[in-house]
Backbone:
């Protein structure tokens, strides 16, 4: 039983972490491609159309990876978490079924036209198909966040005598206070990833003195989009999200901030430190006094409940993991804003294209928003533990009762092998496309 | 209300089989018939802009099952654990094969992904048919052994096979001679269906051979269907009850027969769409008849202790089902518009449409 739950959790965690590497680029990149295409329609400069086509090629591969790794997610609710599906399917099944009906059909019908239909459709209709693909991918994100939000903060439900949950209020699923802050926070984070990737490829071209016209275009566009979204991800959307956690999941907030003890005169903000669960303190701590109280309640002396305020059975299962997830996300987010501010300064002074040291930094920055996004999702998911549906259903009660640990380990190993192969192929093919450069895409 | 969602679910699954079915069929023929590069390319090109959207019908139908009949979704998905995960892997391989084939121009690379595409299409057709066989045969709900349930009454777990390979065995497996028979029928039907798609959407030089092949496969299919009928009542003792209660439903077996009859005449049809319509009618009639033969069950129980899962005891609350109707209808209208746009733009023979790079 213990092993089974562990394998179920590792399998879901692994497959969903891997899956989300792709949609986080897809969602933001679709917007950037639509932007390039729109610039082309406005300026009639062919280079913008080439840029759109170049990114479409990478988008297509990325989208395919997102689709094939996404289907196992829907399946796993039933295969590995059947108890959870059975009890809550009437509710989360609504939003998941809506995702299929509203966004997958939209995306899949127009993706083919978007990728291959430029000659058939003409530029304006082609732009429209791109916009519809963008719309579909964001709708998909929205419905998944709505599902996620119900698990974090269940609303609009009724519990029957047999323990099943049924829907009582449909609109509550979307007016859930968790939905909009999380959705916007997540979408801007996705834009950070895609802008950074565009910027990084731009820097790569400039550094290697190839395709320099595109290098400049990508760097500039990625930098501007990246700077705006990096700020919006932190403020106001990150702030809203954190305030939801304080309000509805105070024990999670204490754990992710690393606050073991309640301080009457205001809590410090932890910058660095390692949770020591035995002694209930942080080792090697670097902190700034009272700042956390101010950020949370706009009052330097406000009291924040520490972990000592709660019962241990309600503690998040993996407090160090949660703490690191949160601090990696916030730390990277802060560093992004810092670096991009410097880069924007050089862009404004028109010196950026020759400053090789800053181009190197921007080039190497690409993997970090992926790490920050992943760490952010770990914060949300580990923060919900030990609950599968917050305060209602424990994770240990949600797994499939009839599937043995041996079967789950078999499929987990299979997924690991298959995904390693896919990842390898993906990296090789994207590398090939990038190396070839935007001009040759139409040959 | 349960009935509404049951019909929607059956309809979406049937549309899925009709649409993605031709993709599988093209894949199967691609494996056995297409030897030259131009044929391989044309076969793949004929499904190029469609297959991705076709696959969405499976995902969407899964979503509807999840939300409307969560007990069946949970029970069946965990009970058929291994075959479902294997289906997932095959779907991944097939999609990856289609996407990656054109990325590198190298004979080994293209050959490898061609095989992957063909083999996974064949295995998927076999698995989906086997799955239908499992649903008709039913499963040991509650895992009853010697009159005692091992699990909750609606849960079960099936291994891929048991040494007896029999649908009447105490220890059932996913694969037994009955379910494999249905699986083989599915492979043949979809191969025919894919052939009809190629006739409809291409000017392939292989078409005369495909027509001859369809004729032969239809003979084989008829023999297998007659075989399956003679053993059907062994696994599903009372298949006609709903038909007898509602005689209008006999229309579905009649439609299936009409389709089958049409398939025999595929070499003589003048219109290119007639063959495709015949195989579509056959799929539609056969699937609907199979669903009706177990109605109102969604997952029959093979023991006397635990009741079958039906559309009435496995559905979610009334309010949820009611509210779902509104958004489903809006979404369905949109989907029809997308389909219309898609098939209008890619109308005619795919040979002539230049949509690639």
Residues:
């Amino acid at each position: 039983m213990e092993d089974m739950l562990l394998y179920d959790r590792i399998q879901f965690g692994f497959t969903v972490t891997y899956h989300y590497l792709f949609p986080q680029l897809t969602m933001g990149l679709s917007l950037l491609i639509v932007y390039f295409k729109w610039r082309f329609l406005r300026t009639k400069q062919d280079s913008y159309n080439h840029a759109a086509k170049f990114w479409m090629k990478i988008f297509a591969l990325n989208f395919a990876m997102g689709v094939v790794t996404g289907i196992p997610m829907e399946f796993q609710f039933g295969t590995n978490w059947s108890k959870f599906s059975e009890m809550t399917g009437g509710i989360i099944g609504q939003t998941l079924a809506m995702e299929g009906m509203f966004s997958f059909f939209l995306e899949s019908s127009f993706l083919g036209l978007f990728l291959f239909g430029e000659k058939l459709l003409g530029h304006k209709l082609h732009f429209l198909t791109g916009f519809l693909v963008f719309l579909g991918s964001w709708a998909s994100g929205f419905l998944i966040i709505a599902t996620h939000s119900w698990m974090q903060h269940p609303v609009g439900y009724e519990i029957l005598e047999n323990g099943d949950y049924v829907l009582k209020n449909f609109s509550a699923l979307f007016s859930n206070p968790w939905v909009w802050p999380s959705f916007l926070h997540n979408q801007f984070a996705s834009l950070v990833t895609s802008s950074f990737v565009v910027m990084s490829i731009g820097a790569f071209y400039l550094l290697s003195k190839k395709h320099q016209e595109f290098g400049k275009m990508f760097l500039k566009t990625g930098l501007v989009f990246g700077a705006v979204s990096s700020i919006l991800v932190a403020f106001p959307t990150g702030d809203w999200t954190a305030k939801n956690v304080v309000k509805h999941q105070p024990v999670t907030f204490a754990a992710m901030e690393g606050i073991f003890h309640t301080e009457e005169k205001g809590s410090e903000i932890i910058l660095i430190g390692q949770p020591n669960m035995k002694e209930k303190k942080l080792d090697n701590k670097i902190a700034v006094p009272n700042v956390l109280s101010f950020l949370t309640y706009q009052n330097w002396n406000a009291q924040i409940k520490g972990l000592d305020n709660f019962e241990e059975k309600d503690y998040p299962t993996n407090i160090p993991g949660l703490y690191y997830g949160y601090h990696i996300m916030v730390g990277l987010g802060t560093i992004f804003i810092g670096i991009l501010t410097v880069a924007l300064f050089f862009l404004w002074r028109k010196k950026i294209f020759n400053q090789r040291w800053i181009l190197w930094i921007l080039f190497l920055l690409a993997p970090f928003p992926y790490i920050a996004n992943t760490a952010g999702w770990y914060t949300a998911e580990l923060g919900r533990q030990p609950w599968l549906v917050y305060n209602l259903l424990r994770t240990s009660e949600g797994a499939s009762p009839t599937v043995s640990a041996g079967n789950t380990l078999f499929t987990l190993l299979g997924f690991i092998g298959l995904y390693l192969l896919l990842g390898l192929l993906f990296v090789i093919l994207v590398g090939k496309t990038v190396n070839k450069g935007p001009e040759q895409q139409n040959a | 209300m349960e009935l509404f969602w049951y019909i929607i679910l059956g309809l979406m699954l049937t549309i899925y089989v009709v649409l993605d079915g031709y993709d599988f069929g093209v894949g199967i023929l691609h494996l056995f018939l297409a030897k030259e590069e131009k044929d391989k390319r044309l076969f793949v090109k004929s499904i190029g802009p469609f297959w991705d959207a076709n696959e969405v019908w499976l995902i969407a139908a899964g979503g509807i099952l999840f939300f409307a009949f969560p007990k069946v979704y949970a029970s069946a998905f965990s009970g058929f654990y291994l075959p479902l995960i294997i289906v997932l892997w095959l779907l991944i391989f097939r999609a990856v094969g289609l996407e990656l084939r054109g990325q590198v121009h190298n004979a080994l690379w293209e050959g490898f992904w061609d095989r992957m595409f063909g083999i996974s299409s064949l295995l998927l057709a076999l698995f989906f048919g086997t799955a239908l066989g499992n649903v008709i045969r039913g499963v040991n709900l509650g895992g009853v052994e010697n009159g005692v349930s091992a699990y909750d009454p609606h849960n079960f777990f099936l291994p891929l096979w048991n040494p007896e390979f029999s649908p009447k065995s105490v220890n059932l497996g996913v694969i037994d001679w009955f379910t494999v028979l249905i699986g083989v029928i599915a492979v043949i039907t979809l191969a025919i269906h894919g052939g009809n798609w190629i006739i409809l959407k291409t000017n392939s030089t292989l078409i005369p051979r495909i027509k001859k092949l369809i004729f032969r496969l239809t003979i084989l299919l008829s023999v297998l269907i007659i075989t399956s009928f003679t053993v059907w009542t062994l696994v599903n003792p009372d298949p006609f009850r709903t038909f007898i209660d509602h005689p209008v439903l006999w229309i579905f077996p009649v439609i299936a027969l009409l389709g089958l009859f049409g398939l025999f005449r595929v070499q003589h049809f003048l219109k290119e769409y007639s063959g495709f319509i015949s195989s579509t009618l056959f799929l539609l009639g056969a699937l609907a008849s199979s669903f009706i033969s177990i109605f109102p069950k969604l997952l029959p129980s093979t023991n006397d202790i635990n009741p079958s899962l039906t559309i009435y005891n496995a559905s979610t609350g009334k309010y949820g089902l009611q509210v779902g109707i509104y958004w489903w209808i809006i979404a369905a209208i949109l989907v029809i518009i997308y389909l219309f746009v898609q098939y209008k733009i890619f109308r005619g023979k795919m040979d002539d449409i230049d949509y690639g790079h």
